[in-house]
């Protein structure tokens, strides 16, 4: 389990560093329309990191994805807690080591902006609860919806098989 946790820590750190560096350089460049380059860069980076980390730890690299895996029963709560701790530590260490507290938005990865929010404080920290709580509530809502839908489909199939 510790090898997987270290994999999550390093993968999250390098993923956030690579992503932040590339997006910052694209947005700060003289390219007239960087709108197509940003999602393409995110896709390529995420694809490469997933190819490397899925066999080792599941390739979560985000507390939200770890939370979803724990809700689905794919990993234990203890493993999920260790992964989330590693992911948040990676963000904090990265923001501390690089000395850059760039804040380019959180997306669905609250760990990405935890380090900058802790270092800069003030308005970033004041609004960080939204970035932290929002994706988790969304994941919980999706899980409840999926479970309800799956139960209804099973009931419908059962009733249908009784008719025929």
From TrEMBL:
Entry-linked Gene3D superfamilies: Glycerol uptake facilitator protein
Entry's localization field: Membrane
TM segment ranges: 9-27, 39-57, 129-149
Database matches in Pfam families: MIP
GO cellular component: membrane
Keywords, ordered alphabetically: Membrane, Transmembrane, Transmembrane helix, Transport
Membrane topology per record: Multi-pass membrane protein
Protein name per the record: Aquaporin pip-type
Organism: Quercus suber
């Amino acid at each position: 389990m510790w090898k997987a946790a270290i994999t999550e820590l390093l993968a999250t750190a390098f993923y956030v560093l690579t992503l932040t560096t590339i997006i910052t350089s694209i947005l700060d460049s003289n390219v007239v329309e960087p709108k197509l380059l940003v999602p393409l860069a995110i896709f390529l980076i995420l694809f490469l990191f997933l190819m490397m980390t899925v066999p080792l730890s599941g390739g979560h690299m985000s507390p939200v994805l770890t939370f979803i895996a724990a809700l689905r029963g794919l990993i234990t709560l203890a493993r999920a807690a260790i992964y989330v701790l590693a992911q948040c530590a990676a963000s904090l260490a990265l923001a501390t080591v690089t000395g850059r507290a760039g804040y380019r938005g959180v997306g669905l990865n609250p760990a990405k902006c935890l380090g900058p929010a802790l270092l800069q404080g003030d308005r970033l920290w004041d609004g960080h609860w939204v970035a932290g709580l929002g994706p988790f509530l969304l994941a919980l809502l999706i899980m409840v919806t999926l479970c309800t839908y799956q139960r209804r489909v099973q009931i419908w199939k059962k009733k249908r098989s009784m008719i025929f």
